[in-house]
Design goal:
This protein is α/β, with parallel strands linked by helices. The protein has 6 helices and 5 strands; from the N terminus they run βαβαβαβαβαα. Bound molecules: adenosine-5'-diphosphate.
Length: 159
């Protein structure tokens, strides 16, 4: 069975993430969307909230599951016996960091491939941070995130 891990902060999940997940789910037998507990970023949503939103948004995909992990992505990937780590690439600004991380992960766990999927043009400007900023200032985020996420962001910022 071909298994892939898609790790990230997902604070919160956006349409850009969902697009990558949908496309990865067509390539692999199963995709685990894995929320990283210690990404170094201070999240707006708790781990439970991020996982609940992901589960709600991804429930229609039969071969996608949601999990969380602490520590190194490669250790989690090895524990799950997955063959690939999926990452999304947006603008050139993602490249350097992702390149460094993929090479480090290859050194740590040579049998696992990092697979990069290009963001679709309509989502290539989109990030969780931009969505949070727009929502916090009362802007409309309907086109950027699934409905459940829009609701939750409105609750958070009381808009
Ligand atoms: P991380 O903290 O690991 O970067 P993110 O939740 O920000 O977590 O992103 C997880 C993955 O999704 C990363 O590979 C990121 O490049 C990718 N990603 C984020 N936003 C988009 C988008 N709009 N389109 C495609 N991929 C994206």
């Amino acid at each position: 069975m071909k298994l892939a891990v898609y790790p990230g902060s997902f604070d919160p999940v956006t349409n850009g993430h969902v697009d990558i997940i949908e496309r990865a789910a067509c390539l692999f037998d199963h995709v685990i969307v894995a929320v990283s507990v210690n990404s170094g970023k201070k999240p707006l949503f708790t781990l439970d909230e991020r996982m609940e939103l992901l589960k709600e948004v991804l429930k229609k995909y039969e071969n996608v599951s949601v999990d969380s992990f602490e520590g190194l992505t490669v250790n989690y990937t090895a524990r799950k016996k997955a063959q690939a780590i999926i990452r999304g690439l947006r603008a050139i600004s993602d490249f350097e960091n992702e390149f460094q991380m993929a090479l480090t992960n290859k050194k740590l766990l040579p049998e696992v491939e990092t697979i990069f999927m290009m963001a679709q043009p309509q989502w290539s400007f989109l990030s969780s941070s931009v969505v949070k900023e727009v929502a916090s200032l009362g802007g409309c985020i309907r086109d950027f995130v699934p409905l459940a996420v829009e609701k939750k962001l409105k609750e958070k910022f009381s808009i």
